Amino acid sequence: MLTNAAESKPSEHEREHIVIKPSVLYVGTPVALITSLNADGTTNISPMSSAWAQFDRMILGLTATSKGRENAMRERQLVLNFPSPDLWPKIEALAPTTGRNPVPAHKEKIGYRFEADKFDVSGFTPQASELVRPLRIAECPIQLEAEVVASHAPGGEWPAERQEGFWIIETKVIRIHAHRDIVIPGTNHIDTSRWSPLLYVFRHYFGTGQDLGRTFKAEA
Questions:
Q1: What number is the average pLDDT over the span 99-105?
Q2: DSSP class of residue 85?
Q3: 31: which of 68, 78, 156, 202 is 20 to 30 A away, CA to CA?
Q4: Cα 200 vs. chain centroid, distance in angstroms?
Q5: Between 135 and 5, where is the model more confident?
Q6: Does the structure show a pLDDT above 50 at 164?
């Protein structure tokens, strides 16, 4: 047992920091499925993992040529649908698709294809929203209906090797839906023993592990 423990403990050499240049910085962020309204009134689904929250705001990073970004900035409405880990195969079925036709050249080169009906491709179930026009995704345990309140291109100089830029979109959440089984009865709190987001870690899918403890600000 002592030998195994010694083998599993990183050596001082292994803990030494080295400089690296990874192609992405997804150190572990939740996957979100953005539903947005196409010009013809149908709903597009955009898988993404660049979102963070502050109070009632969700800040998104969407690529410049994505249909989701175009729709969100035109219609000023969207839904953020947060899937559980078991839904990852449906999300991966969406990954190489785009709602933009023709497919942007740089996306076509790496295998993207146009799909008009993202619900059909993924097998997700459409669900009517209450305060916005884009549909929700019924299978996703948490859904945030939101309005776009601001957007802008990133600051600074964009790396020359990057073929596509992105936009930063600030949204205000106006209604929150959650599956009944992940809400603590009689409260507005998510039961963290029952809810696990799907995480995107350096282009790999993960669920969360055991509960390690809570911050002093936790309400439940």
A1: 91
A2: G
A3: 156
A4: 8
A5: 135
A6: yes
Find the DSSP H helices in 167-206. none
Q: Where are the alpha helices (DSSP H) in the chain?
A: 2-8, 67-75, 88-94, 105-109, 118-122
The separation between CA 72 and the C-alpha centre of its own chain, rounded to angstroms, equals 15
Q: How would you class 192 by CB atoms within 10 Å of its CB: exposed for 0-12, middle for 13-18, buried for 19 or more?
A: middle
Tokens of 19: 């400089």
160, containing H or E segment: none
- Tell me whether the omega of the peptide bond preceding residue 102 falls within 30 degrees of 0, making it cis: yes
Evaluate whether 182 touches 194 at the Cβ level (below 8 Å).
yes
- Asked if residues 114 and 142 have their Cβ atoms less than 8 Å apart, the reply is no
Residue 71 Cα distances to 53, 64, 68, 112, angstroms: 21, 11, 5, 19
Q: What is the pLDDT of residue 1?
A: 46
Q: Of 56-70, 116-130, 155-169, which range is least confident?
A: 155-169
Quote the tokens at residue 34: 């953005």
- 135 near 127, Cβ under 8 Å? yes
For the chain, report the end-to-end CA distance as a whole number of angstroms: 38
Share of the chain above pLDDT 90, in %: 74
Which pLDDT score is estimated for 210?
Answer: 80
Select from 63, 29, 24, 30 the least CA-distant residue to 46. Answer: 63
